[in-house]
Design brief:
about 160 residues; mainly alpha; about 95% helix; about 0% strand
Length: about 160
């Protein structure tokens, strides 16, 4: 019985090692690649977009403030106001263009990522398949050893007549 227990433990350890290797190569490595390559690029683009939105809002505020100031400006300040307004308007328009471009790129990144949704879901299906296979193999090994142990114990308890 002790020898059989050692054999089954060895067998279970082998099955566990196979499970871990399959898990690593079929699930963890692809998910790690996903988290290190695709997701950071999307998050970086999102951060750029947020910064551009903030910059554009600030530029709009400065432009609106300058428009209000130009309405009340008199004298020398009134003569420099048109050029200042023009440069603020150009800055706001340029930021708006960059914002729209970044937004389009971000949406394209998200769309590209979403087109791989089935591929990503398959990693989790593969995980469940690997786990199920591991448990089946372990259970089969345990059932086989239990059957042998019971048979050997029954053989010892019922000595056959000679």
């Amino acid at each position: 019985a002790l020898e059989m227990s050692c054999c089954i433990q060895s067998s279970l350890a082998r099955i566990l090692a196979e499970f871990e290797m399959a898990l690593e190569s079929d699930v963890l490595q692809p998910l790690n690649k996903l988290s290190e390559e695709e997701l950071p690029a999307i998050l970086k683009r999102k951060k750029q977009l947020q910064k551009l939105i903030s910059d554009w809002n600030n530029a709009k505020s400065r432009l609106n403030q300058a428009v209000k100031s130009s309405a009340t400006a008199t004298g020398a300040a009134a003569t420099t106001m048109p050029s200042k307004l023009e440069s603020l308007k150009e800055e706001e328009e340029e930021l708006k263009k960059r914002l729209e471009q970044c937004k389009d790129e971000y949406l394209a990144d998200l769309y590209h990522f979403s087109t791989k949704e089935n591929e990503h879901a398959n990693y989790f299906i593969k995980l469940l398949e690997i786990q199920a296979d591991y448990h089946r193999k372990s259970l089969s090994s345990l059932d086989h050893v239990l059957l042998e142990l019971r048979d050997s114990l029954h053989g010892l308890a019922d000595p056959s007549p000679t």
